[in-house]
Amino acid sequence: MTINFRQEGKIAIYTIENPSRMNSLNNTALGELQEHLMAFNNDSNLWAGIITGSGEKAFCCGFDINSFKEGTQAKHQPDEQPDPIRGLEITKPLIAAINGAALGGGLELALICDLRIASDKAVFGFPEVKLGLIPSWGGTQRLSHQISSCQAAEMLFTGSNIDASTAMRIGLINRVVPHDQVLTCALSLAETICRAAPLAVRATKEAMLKSWQVSPEEGLQIEKALSCHLKTTADFHEGMKAFREKRKPEFRGK
After folding, report:
1. Nearest to 168 by CA among 93, 116, 110
2. Which whole-number Å values give the CA distances from 132 to 33, 109, 139, 157, 207, in the listed order?
């Protein structure tokens, strides 16, 4: 099992390589994924990221429960397990290219992404309650910020799966595309994002993330402060100059 990384221009593509186990993640893969995402966040040459799964069946089906050994429950308490997805905030845009099943921790991984492109064969769900658990990588928190609380409650309480068309209808994903076009569509969307000013995109994401944690009034103050800062950047002046000269801007992330 590994997390494969490749770069296309300013876009980072991370592929979970464990198709024989529905791209489930063990402790090592979780640590590797965290390292990749933090490196992505700190690399000024990367402006957008895509996470996808290998094979034809799964995006990711969460933690590999077969990596648990009998009699180790006391040793491996939930709060001691690696959980790089919970609380992880990436300041750059992330796109989930969901090429199949996104279940449990796999759906939580998709939820840390800002945009989600799904195959028409994809399914989504949180089966944890059927195992005597709850989603613990942020699923109980993020899902209700993405869809209505009653829709989130139904998914979380029943452990039932939904298909891609239902996920689209309730606002869980952005687009449903033919199975063989998932990564192509995600790359096209990433390329569109990369044509915008990267500092402005990141500031927009920061304002959105912080709005979860503060009052509307505080959120407006954060928005104003970020806007004022952006007006001091070279990218802002390039954007204004390009607009006046009727040409495409050449942003540098500065």
Report:
1. 116
2. 26, 20, 15, 11, 36
- Determine, yes or no, domain membership for 249: no
Name the residue among 174, 195, 196 with its Cα closest to residue 186: 174
**Hey, what are 199's tokens?**
């500092």
The domain spanning residue 37 has which CATH number?
Answer: 3.90.226.10
**CA 249 from centroid of its chain's CA atoms:** 28
Domain that includes residue 43, residue range? 2-194
**Cα–Cα distance for residue pair 47/11, rounded to 1 Å:** 6
CB 22 within 8 A of CB 61: yes
Distances (CA, A) of 73 to 65, 80, 104, 193: 12, 11, 19, 44
Q: Assess whether 187 and 221 both reside in one domain.
A: no
Q: In terms of domains, do 239 and 181 share one?
A: no
- The torsion angles phi and psi of 53, rounded to 5 degrees, stand at -115, 160
- My answer on whether 114 and 159 are in the same domain is yes
Mean pLDDT for 28-50 is 93
Element (H, E) at 17: strand 11-17
In a shared domain, residues 137 and 83: yes
First to last CA, the chain: 37
Q: What's the predicted TM-score (pTM) here? A: 0.91
pLDDT in tens, 85-121: 666 779 999 999 999 999 999 999 999 999 999 999 9
Domain identity same for 171 and 225: no
Question: Residue 107 burial by CB count (10 A; 0-12/13-18/19+): exposed, middle or buried?
Answer: buried
48 pLDDT band, cuts 50/70/90, is: very high
